[in-house]
Fold:
Amino acid sequence: MSESLRHEILSPGPDDGDWGDILKRASRAHRRRVCVITAVTALIAIGVASAYTLGHPVIDFGSAEKAPQHVVLDFGALDMYYTELMRPETLTDQARKIPGLTLNGEPYALYVAPTKRGGFCFTAGAPMLVGCLTERADRKGHVDFETVGSERPWIPGTVVDDRVDEVVVSYADGTSEKIPFVWVTEPIDAGFFVVGVSDEHKAHSARPTAITFYDAEGKVVGGDRLDTPRDASDLRPK
Amino acid sequence: MTASVDDLEQLYRDRYSTFRDILSGVVGSHDLAREVVQEAFTRALRERKKFRGDGSLEAWVWKIALNFALRRRRQLRREWHLDEYEAPAREQPRMDNVRDAVRALPPRCRLIVFLRYYADHSYTEIAQIVGISEGTVASTLSRAREELMDLLPEEEEARI
Structure:
């Protein structure tokens, strides 16, 4: 095929290749893996609250504590709630307990398990929140969250974009704060966070309005507006 | 056999534009295609030890890139399936130029045309990249040629 015909079919783009960018991206992923053992050791040695001084902890899935039997059964029951086409097919024997999250100063119980189709299911907190992400590729830049509870509302979520270095919640009063999150290695390969809605942010004028993801260079790589009702006291489980 | 960093860098420098331009036909823009290419080569660099040498390094990276492109395409909520080639209905309007005719081809057919005539891949490599048999590559290209032949200048017909 002649060059002119090729150009007619497919317009050539600018000369914007950058091998240095490839090396940077690859080294970011490597740094995340190198931090795994350090982060886990730090969590054990210095406690959960201090671990966030390391950035976000990276939890090695393979080394994490196995989930208790009642959680394994909960994961196994998930398939009952889905149609055959949508069943997550959780690998329940691989369920793990993931440390590192707190909610209002208390440890936040998080359990995860991979699924046959490359996604994952998780169950967290009290009251229990259960969810699955079966098509992770479609959710790379989004927040997966539920707003639960009427007395102590909180916003749990997942992140499946490994570029994410910071998760920030914004409020209607113009303030914002960074949310700690933990990253779990493959086969889960996702991050988990939970942010409690404090008393000062329950009023409509100061309610949480968005969660935004930033990469290591401070660039926005995803996020979502929060679908919160007018009054935080009206929050209901979805 | 694994791929070396130097091999991947050389491939990138030699073929970046081809990857980017073909993938722009998949994801819809040069900017998105660039992002897909960067992600694909990053993944290839991180997982270069998984390259077994049972095909060309470029075909291996193409498979990675195509997966990223399809995922990005789904993210954009556009329907993009690697469908079987189907002959167009007789009532379809005649295309005025080759570009429109190529773009009207079913997605998998279009991709195979790009990989063959734009990226100069062999039937074997195309089969590896797309995950189909060489026979299907051949029949797909044959049908695409029939579709495009009427629109090509005489001097181009001989090159297809």
